[in-house]
Amino acid sequence: MFTHAVTRALRKNKTLRYGVPMLLLIVGGSFGLREFSQIRYDAVKIKIDPELEKKLKMNKVSLESEYEKIKDSTFDDWKNVRGPRPWEDPDLLQGRNPEILKTKTT
């Protein structure tokens, strides 16, 4: 009889019904965020392979070098071509004949 009265009182108590789960969510979320944000700092500490680092340094592409490549290009004769959707055939959409393409590949 005593346990029945206690459980009924606990069900009616709004603090225990709504407040405690909310506090658990906030505290548990802070611990979860700490773990996920720690991954970011651990990834920075990882050393890159020296061979890969050499390749990355050799392939330096700057904004200025890319600008020099396209500086003299004219964009007056461009054509707006829509890309294919996943269910469409890209060759038919762009006006290419798929039969000609099949004969070229074989």
What do you see in this structure?
This protein is an all-alpha fold. The protein has a domain of 71 residues. The chain has six helices and no strands. It starts with a helix and ends with a helix.
> What fraction of the residues are assigned to beta strands by DSSP?
under 5%
**Largest sheet, strands/sense/barrel:** none
Oligomer: single chain
Write down the secondary-structure element order. HHHHHH
Overall radius of gyration: 32 Å
Broad shape: elongated
- List unreliable stretches of 5+ residues: none
Straight-line N-to-C gap: 86 Å
* Fraction of residues in helix: 55-70%
Question: Structural class of the secondary structure composition?
Answer: mainly alpha
> Care to count the β-strands?
0
Number of helices: 6
The average pLDDT score comes to 81
Keywords: Membrane, Mitochondrion, Mitochondrion inner membrane, Transmembrane, Transmembrane helix
GO biological process, one term: mitochondrial respiratory chain complex IV assembly
Protein name: Cytochrome c oxidase assembly protein COX16 homolog, mitochondrial
Family: Belongs to the COX16 family.
